[in-house]
Design a protein that fits this description.
The chain is of the alpha/beta class. It is 26% helix and 24% strand. It binds zinc ion (2 copies).
Length: 359
């Protein structure tokens, strides 16, 4: 089969690899589409992971083979499914505290198209291992594979929203209106929250209004004193851009007792100390945490236990993810898809790779 193999930093190659073999409790899925995710982009761009690997973890496709135990568990050949590559053990210390993304079992990747498991969505077929079968979701007939592939990113956003203490009528700033920021805007609006959406691109602010933002502001021209909705301070802020300046600005913007949630700061500081991009250089006044009781929190990855709620949200189109997908690339152009996703343009949002198996 064809697969896009990561061979080192910024080196993705279309290669021929064997179709994966599956075991009794496993599935073989013919990949239809796979979303390009910022976390994969970082691994590819910085070469932080040992090659070779086949990335891509926002995968939807059709079951073409099911082992005996997988069939007993109810899986059938021909079913259209969305995959979830991480499933926690639900028993360890981390899981008991709902920090699923820190669980050792969760950190193991359960889907592969060959080599060390890394998602396997940028290939024609992927093998789904036994322990991640609970994360497989059937896609209703009326919904597309692309909608299925969006469950994973939506899950990460809903998980983060659940970490916020927000009530109906609250004001929340969402900094960054890329696909993830737009999902935050919409999900918060569905919960009765008044969203102030900010971005540097006008095209994205326009979209943010479509996705339910009450106010929008260009981050470059934002006046924190007089801006829309700023009067009484924000109840919370979501930082969906990897900008340290946005974090300190947000800490100034939220009211006492409010929360600032980091979502896009997924790159660790260089070893041996903080670089200017890390917290040390961000000029955070810790008295805002102590005296003003503001919480600085983060959220990473998905929460498997809310997957059914995510599926309802997406498949009912309450959160209509179709408007978030701007580009589709064929499998052989995966490198271009990754390059575009890494450097968003005025008209680029979520980018997906389609393997030509959608029919
Ligand atoms: Zn992802
Ligand atoms: Zn666990």
């Amino acid at each position: 089969m064809r697969a896009v193999v990561y061979r080192g930093a910024d080196d993705l190659r279309l290669e021929r690899v064997p179709v994966p073999e599956i075991g009794a409790n496993e599935l073989l899925v013919k990949v239809a589409v796979c979303g390009v995710c910022p976390t994969d982009i970082k691994k590819i761009h910085y070469g932080t992971i040992q090659p070779p690997r086949i990335f891509g973890h926002e995968t939807a496709g059709t079951i073409v083979k099911a082992g005996l135990l997988a069939r007993r568990a109810g899986f059938r050949v021909g079913e259209r499914v969305a995959l979830h590559h991480h499933v926690p053990c639900l028993e360890c210390r981390f899981c008991r505290h709902r920090a699923h993304a820190q669980c050792e079992t969760y950190k193991r990747t359960g889907i592969t198209a060959g080599f060390e498991p890394a998602g396997g969505g940028f290939a024609e077929y992927a093998r789904v291992m036994g322990w991640v079968l609970p994360g497989v979701v059937r896609i209703p007939a009326k919904n597309s594979f692309a909608e299925g592939a969006m469950l994973e990113p939506v899950n990460t956003v809903l998980k983060a929203v659940k970490r916020l203490n927000v009530m109906r009528g609250d004001r929340v700033m969402v900094a960054g209106q890329g696909p993830i920021g737009l999902m935050f805007t919409k999900i918060l609006q569905l919960r009765g929250v008044q969203v102030l959406a900010t971005d540097l691109l006008e095209s994205r602010l326009k979209l943010a209004r479509k996705f339910g933002a009450k106010w929008t502001a260009n981050a470059r021209e934002m006046d924190h004193q007089k801006g829309p909705g700023f009067g009484a301070g924000m109840d919370a802020a979501v930082i969906a851009v990897p900008s340290d300046a946005a974090v300190s600005a947000a800490l100034g913007l939220v009211r006492g007792g409010g929360q600032v949630l980091l979502f896009a700061h997924t790159r660790r500081a260089a070893p041996g100390g903080f670089d200017s991009q890390a917290a040390g250089g961000a000029g955070i006044d810790f008295a805002s945490i102590c005296l003003d009781e503001k919480d600085l929190i983060g959220s990473y990855s998905a929460d498997f236990t809310i997957q059914q709620e995510v599926a309802r949200l997406v498949f009912s189109r309450q959160l209509d993810v179709r408007g978030l997908i701007s580009h589709r690339f064929p499998l052989e152009k995966t490198a271009s898809a990754v390059a575009l996703a890494a450097k968003p343009t005025e008209d680029s949002l979520k980018i997906i790779v389609a393997s030509g198996n959608e029919g």
